[in-house]
Design brief:
flavin adenine dinucleotide binding, AcylCo_DH-like_C, Acyl-CoA_DH_C, Alkylation response protein AidB-like acyl-CoA dehydrogenase, alpha+beta, Butyryl-CoA Dehydrogenase, subunit A, domain 3, Butyryl-CoA Dehydrogenase, subunit A, domain 2, 49% helix, acyl-CoA dehydrogenase activity
């Protein structure tokens, strides 16, 4: 039976069972990819009528549910959603039919213009290196930013045209396989490259949701681990309690971890709801919302730290899912789109500019 998030227990269990192997492989397992595809996770932002074209709220809910079982799997699905969103926005009706002929195709990409496009006759030659491309080893196609005659542009590349360098060696989110994609004089039809624009603040906000949701999901997954521990007969070491649940302090710690986790989730969903409407998000609203997302990411880290205190040193056993979720939250919550000090800085600049302008017309 499918949950309200659209992820059935069957597929959630498949992702959980594959999570450890996913991390060891530095990429998703075939079982995980199949589960994501069958849940429609790769079609979330495929334009209608063939795809789901889900709202930011629906994307956030789905990625959170997936992240509860496997944060890396949710992250790759989120990258796919972001890639398809930006691709559709920039290519519009000129999008190559190869991109959306299969609504469940896995897409990956980068908005960093670390490549060039040179027109030669009816073709374009692409050269460049794009780091941190999540899911690139398993993707069907990529959309990457390039500079074409000094103009910021986007290119569509089938993955078999790119070379992958194994550069993703991180403590967390290891299963995302966020390696480096390289184009060595790749020749494309000219129609596969279009002039475009760098992601606007509203685009960045939507992308921020796709990186925060797997983190929130991972935190909920950690809460599941701790909840199971409390339901067991585990005895707190060096205490007279017969069960963890008998300790007032432990119950308080658990309540605080639960509060922080669900505050992060509510914050994320509130932002997702706000940008799911038809009204364009202004810069001021986007700045405030970005700060909210950064706060939610910090709530996730704080919640997991409390859970590790509750679990004790055994939570760091390599066989314990809690330590993997902790590392995934620690790395994922520090994505540039969730940068807390820059979010506060931008909020401060905006607030100062808006509320404390000097009226020089009244100066003597």
């Amino acid at each position: 039976m499918a949950s309200p998030s659209g992820v059935s227990e069957e597929f959630a269990a498949a992702l959980r069972a594959s999570a450890e192997e996913t991390e060891k492989r530095n990429r998703l397992t075939p079982v995980s990819i199949d589960a994501l595809r069958r849940t429609g996770a790769f079609a979330l932002r495929t334009p209608r009528p063939s795809g789901a074209d889900a709202t930011p709220l629906e994307v956030a809910e789905r990625l959170t549910a997936l992240g509860r079982s496997c944060p890396s799997a949710a992250w790759v699905a989120g990258t796919c959603a972001t890639t398809k969103s930006l691709f559709a926005k920039n290519f519009g009706e000129d999008a190559p039919e190869e991109a959306f002929s299969n609504p469940d195709a896995l897409a990956c990409g980068s908005g960093v213009p670390s490549g060039t496009a040179t027109r030669v006759g009816d073709n374009v030659h692409i050269n460049g290196r794009w780091a941190n491309i999540s899911g690139c080893e398993d993707a069907d196609w990529a959309s990457v930013a390039v500079m074409a005659d000094g103009i910021y542009s986007w290119a569509f590349l089938p993955l078999d045209r790119l070379r992958i360098e194994q550069t993703w060696e991180m403590a967390g989110m290891r299963g995302t396989g966020s390696h480096t994609a390289v184009a060595d004089d790749v020749v494309l039809p000219a129609r596969w490259v279009v002039s475009g624009q760098a992601p606007a603040r509203a685009d960045q906000l939507a992308s921020g949701l796709t990186v925060l949701a797997p983190v929130v999901g991972a935190t909920l997954g950690a809460l599941d681990v701790i909840g199971n521990m409390f339901a067991s007969d585990r005895t707190p070491f060096m205490s007279n309690y017969s069960r963890m649940a008998d300790s007032d302090g432990a119950r308080h710690w658990l309540a605080e971890a639960d509060r922080l986790t669900h505050r992060a989730e509510r914050t994320m969903l509130a932002v997702a709801t706000a940008i799911s409407g038809d009204t364009a998000v202004g810069d001021a609203a986007a700045t405030r919302a970005a700060a909210d997302l950064a706060d939610a990411a910090r709530d996730c880290r704080a919640a997991v730290d409390l859970m590790l205190d509750l679990h004790g040193a055994s939570g760091f056993r390599t066989t314990n899912a809690l330590q993997r979720l902790w590392r995934d939250v620690s790395v994922g919550s520090r994505h540039p789109l969730l940068n807390p000090y820059l979010a506060v800085e931008r909020l401060g600049v905006m607030t100062t500019t808006t509320n404390h302008r000097t009226d020089h017309s009244k100066a003597p």
